[in-house]
Amino acid sequence: MTTPTSTVSAQAPSTTSLAAAPDPGRIARRRRLAQWGFVAPAVVFMLLFFGYPLVRNVVMSFQDYTPKTFFTGEAPFNGADNWSHVFQDALFGKALWHTLVFTAGSLLGQFCIGLALAVFFSRRFPLNGVLRSLILLPWLVPMVVSGIVWRRILDQDTGVLNSFLDTLGIGGHTPWLTSPEMALLSVVLVNIWIGIPFNMVILYGGLQEIPKELHEAAALDGASAWRTFRSVTLPMLKPVVTVVLVLGFMSTVKILDLILALTDGGPADATQTLGTLTYQNSFVQLDFGAGAVVGNVLILISAVFAVFYLRANRTEGK
Amino acid sequence: MSKRFTSLALTAHPPAATRRGRGRSRRVLAPFTAVSVLVAGAALAGCGQQRDADTYTVMNSSTDESYHRWDAEAMARCGKELGVTIEQQSVPAAQVMTKALRMASSKSLPDIVQFDASEMPTFADAGGLVDLRTLGLSTDDIPDGIVDFGSYKGTYYGAARSVNTLALFYNKDVLDKAGVRVPTTWAELRETAKKLTRGKQYGLALSAGGAEDGVFQFTPFMWSNGGDETDLDGPKVVEALDYWKGLLKDGSLSKSTVNWTQADVNDQFMAGNAAMMVNGPWQVETLNGDKSLHWGIAPIPVPRTGEDSVGPLGGAVLTVPNTGDEAREKTAGKIVACLASEKEQLTYALNSWMVPANAKAAAVWREKVPELDSLADQVAVARSRTAKLGAGWSSVSLALQSAFQSALTGQSSETALKRAQQRATSGN
């Protein structure tokens, strides 16, 4: 694909040098200009929509940024006040812990179930396609809608889930969202439900890429199904697994909408995460400096994992 | 990879394509320039918004169809009277403040903003509002409590059209069948709620959700008992929270109370899952939608017989933001005066079931809606949440939410409120 395009665009300098008097400096300059021309839109976009907000957010975390700032444009620097303020808040530690539990729990559940379903659907059987597209539904429903629907399903007295459990005679009065001990678990369960399709689709795609011959060879060697899965499927799937987990991590760690719709961070702050804390600081208390601090911590966590992602990709490229 | 191909091409290709090649690089660059210009142009256009001289904008949170329509009608009437066009811009209630702040920084504030009264002090404190008295608005017929409701540090910034508060709604049929009277004291409420709890039906529903809704609902219990938002761990507040815990322990309240908004509470009441509920007049429109439901309304019970039931004053106020354009601000003041006039207040209040802020309008309203009479009495003694704390209310509110949720899910009221007081004073 790249061959013809690069050939055409590259003709210019070489031919110029032959037609007009050769001027290597000019050729190189023009070539570089064209190269920059290609890169420029991406660079401008990144600077404008990623670089600027990022820098702004970091700067803001060192400023006394209040509603007054919007009128005067002045946000005096206050050193590390915002940072110490946030770190001393008992809620921050709680939120950090909840975020970790939420992310780890969600990823584990989503991935395992997603992988199991992907393996299941890579066999041939009737209605495979229909069922597979039905499983995508949670992905298509807006997060807030899922949140509101699940809030009703999980209601302690009138929820469908408890009514169902009641008819089975087990745990008909489970306080899914109303007990501080249960709420985080319930939120994780809902998020697993939401994340399964994404994991399944990508892993399913990965499974299709594995040559059938490998499985046949393994079968000829007398490997059991489990052994084939462990020694052939999983290693071959590794690059895809990395992508799924890292992308999953980055979309899970910043969770906000689902929790706002399900529990609003409650009861008794049992489901406060870094996402909800940022929201609360910035948009309820209007303490934008403190909100920026929590936001930065989130960015930092994501950045660490982005590095892992890039490294994994690079080794794969070689 | 592609780099290698490029260098190959450089050396290997014949000279024939000179013109084409040069033309290409220009052709490639041209669209980039065009795109950059477009982007820059769009960005600049966003900043320099032109204002039409005779068009005035009101930003409010009337995103519900009926409210939006009532407001549009009122604005059309006032626009006609004043010879201007009034445009309505409605955004979700939770976004009014942040949107207004963003508009302030881009110098594109609307001419009038309708804030929830509990948010107004924050905007006023930032220097964003114009004193309505300097724009010629009078407060003559408005009760002192409601003037305070629209004031911050003694300056009158917000004109309320209507106000609301909380009351006890009850299902007449259920109470009649059980042969109980409407409770007036805490002890009676507790007993009645217990009596009415049977099967799937809880005696009482209220919202203790983790947002302003829950705090709004806690205030009548806190205030009627003599508690105060400046002293969250004071014995009176602890007592009020213990009372809530008692209702929950009796089984008269659903455990889901901590997860309910006021709208959820209304749903539960309408579905027959609760015999009584604490809620506000904005639910009346929905309640009346169910003809088979016979409901009544009473003041929220008080700790001891004969005491005043002090509820929270709720509602929105019309404000004129500080745009620096005095001529426009003057006209905006006239629009606010018209929208909050006795006549418009009455129309709005009758539509929305809220109590008019103006005393004369309220008197007429009482005659027209006798079933909500007790609400008008409650409003007269109701208290504004921000009267004492101003812009500091949001910190206290967050601390209080966390406290009553902790207490309702197991912690002792005292411990929970002690931590809330610490959190509120440290600003965390």
UniProtKB/TrEMBL annotation, chain B:
Pfam family, one: SBP_bac_8
InterPro entries assigned: Bact_solute-bd_prot1, SBP
Chain spans, region Disordered: 1-23
Superkingdom assignment: Bacteria
Name of this chain's protein: ABC transporter substrate-binding protein
Biological source species: Streptomyces ardesiacus
